[in-house]
Amino acid sequence: MKRIYLEKQKRLDKLTKKDQEDLIMDLVNAIVGAKSIGDSALFLQDLLTKAEMRTLSKRLRIAKLLLDGMTYEEIEKQLHASHGTVAKISAWLAERGDGFRKIIA
User: N or C: where does the chain have the smaller number of CB atoms within 10 Å of the terminal CB?
Assistant: First the structure.
């Protein structure tokens, strides 16, 4: 007998689109409202797990290196990143990437 697994709706998906946008704006305002780099670092340490911090940091560095003209292979070797991760960041830069570009500049 074949089992069918239905994907459980995530709790955030139960919120209205406006409520979801409000949550994101709370986060953005908190980041922008930091008075110093030290305050920003403390906030991110409180907000993110170590794994999340490493993941986001690596994504940012990959974007920087791609914008600096490094090859996938060089980035993979330097950061011990998978080809898929580098390709994903490259696709984000190609599709939108303005946020990466502004922050990195």
Answer: N
Residues 6+ apart with CB under 8 A from 31: 40, 43
Cβ atoms within 10 A of the Cβ of 63, count?
A: 22
Of 86, 29, 36, 94, nearest in space to 59 by CA = 86
Residue with the bigger pLDDT between 8 and 85: it is 85
- 18-29: pLDDT as tens digits: 998 999 999 999
Confidence (pLDDT) at 72: 98
Calpha distance 5→26 (Å, rounded):
34
Q: Does pTM top 0.85 for this prediction?
A: no
